[in-house]
Amino acid sequence: MKNLKQHQHWRLTTVVALNLLMVGALTSPAAVAHDDWQTAGEHGEIHLYGLLSEGACLLDMQSAYQQVELAAVSTSALAKPGDSSLPTTFQIVLRHCARSGGEQRDRYTNTLSHDAIQPVVTLSFSGDVDPLAPGLLKVSGVQGMGLKLTDPQGRAVVPGESGQPQFLTPGDNILTYRVTPVRTSEKLNAGAYWAVANFKVNYD
Questions:
Q1: Which end of the chain is more exposed for a tag (fewer CB within 10 A), N or C?
Q2: Helices (H), the chain
Q3: Are 129 and 149 in contact (CB under 8 A)?
Q4: How far apart are CA 41 and CA 25, in angstroms?
């Protein structure tokens, strides 16, 4: 149990990524003897990959890949199904949000969220769900618990389903989410655990 905390982490990745790949080559003169461009001297090759986004904001690259370490949890804190421990926060940063306005319909209430200036977004998370508690992310390494996600307003986030609309302010925005270990009906055992989730930012 002494090393439990240092092994516990919750990794968060995004489905939207920006990649920069630089590729070089060192070849022998004989291999390039028939290539006039290559015989002119040293040469290299650069492949650039990027994303042109239609969204109102830019996802901060430090938010695109995160490892979130959860505090150690005692099995006594999860004595019966439904028990939960203290949450751990993580943040998703959206930068340079434009004064573009927007609207989104809440899939739960069917109400329309609209503003002429503030962008409106929904975030959706995906990953393996606990078969005994579909609203929780499944963890590996232990059994008898799953991870509950909540949005900045404290509302539950169901993996695989679009979250509820959130208003952003023009400029930079920090969205603080929480992840909470929750006991399920399966027999509980101790050990290091981990889970992986993807997220996607959806605009109008």
A1: N
A2: 4-7, 61-64
A3: no
A4: 13
Neighbours of 15 (CB within 10 A): 11
* Nearest Cα to Cα of residue 204 among 100, 83, 126: 100
Q: Which residue in 94, 93, 100 sits closest to 118, CA to CA?
A: 100
Tell me which H or E stretch contains 87: none
Strands 9-14 vs 194-202: parallel, antiparallel or unpaired = parallel
Question: For residues 94 and 105, what is the distance between their CA atoms, to the nearest angstrom?
Answer: 21
Three-state DSSP at 92 gives strand
How far, in Å, CA of 134 to CA of 203, rounded? 26
- The DSSP bridge partners found for residue 14 are 199
pLDDT in tens, 100-144: 655 555 555 656 555 556 788 889 998 899 998 989 999 999 999
Is-contact 64 171, C-beta < 8 A? no
Q: Is 71 exposed, middle or buried (0-12, 13-18, 19+ CB in 10 A)?
A: exposed
Selection from 184, 187, 195 nearest residue 141 by Cα: 195
Which backbone phi and psi does 82 adopt, to 5 degrees? 95, -20
In this structure, the chain runs to a length of 204
Q: How far apart (Å, rounded) are the C-alpha atoms in residues 32 and 78?
A: 66
What confidence tens digit (pLDDT) does each residue in 1-39 have? 444 434 444 434 333 333 333 433 344 344 445 555 555
